[in-house]
């Protein structure tokens, strides 16, 4: 079985699309997904399945809509793909540490997309690349480095306007999900 990281877009934010993780876990196990685990309340899942990504994604989205009454986008990555996201980070650790120490907040994020962006979408994002908001696109992932808070970022606000669904996670969450995935992947040494 393949270990997947599943990220749900826009749940448990501002009192909208509320899902208790224990209920979500039970619901997904009921449709045959294996070893379902959750991490914090923002829609981070680890699970095992033999299904291909597109079928698995539809299965999870359908189950959420059926069980909880609303639709959400699900972004999937295999554990191997997730590991590559961490390994390929284009921003040097020293630079990230310096920015975090100056801003007193997290500065490194990843936007995970369902599909690769069109050239038009890439061009529209380039307008927001600046000395204070940097990004780098790698396949279906966008690395985001904010020298100030993500909360007031013009670049971050553009992600919701892309032609494909995207969800954003901070670097600490990304690393924690990788660690949890490695721990549950029986084929990998810890």
UniProtKB/TrEMBL annotation:
This is DUF1697 domain-containing protein. It comes from the Bacteria. It comes from Heliobacterium mobile (Heliobacillus mobilis). Gene3D superfamilies: SP0830-like domains.
């Amino acid at each position: 079985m393949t270990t997947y990281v599943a990220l749900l877009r826009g749940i448990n934010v501002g009192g909208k699309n509320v899902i208790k993780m224990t209920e979500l876990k039970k619901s997904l196990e009921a449709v045959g997904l294996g070893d379902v685990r959750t991490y914090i309340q923002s829609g981070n899942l680890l699970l095992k399945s033999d299904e291909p990504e597109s079928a698995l994604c539809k299965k999870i989205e359908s189950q959420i809509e059926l069980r909880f009454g609303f639709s959400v986008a699900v972004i999937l990555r295999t554990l191997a793909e997730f590991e590559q996201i961490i390994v390929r980070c284009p921003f040097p650790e020293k630079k990230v540490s310096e920015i975090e120490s100056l801003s007193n907040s997290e500065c490194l994020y990843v936007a995970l997309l369902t599909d690769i962006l069109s050239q038009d979408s890439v061009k529209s994002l380039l307008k927001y690349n600046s000395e204070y908001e940097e990004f780098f696109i790698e396949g279906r992932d966008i690395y985001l480095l904010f020298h100030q808070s993500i909360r007031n970022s013009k670049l971050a606000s553009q992600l919701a306007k892309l032609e494909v669904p995207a969800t954003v996670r901070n670097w600490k969450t990304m690393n924690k999900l990788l660690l949890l995935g490695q721990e549950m992947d029986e084929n990998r040494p810890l």
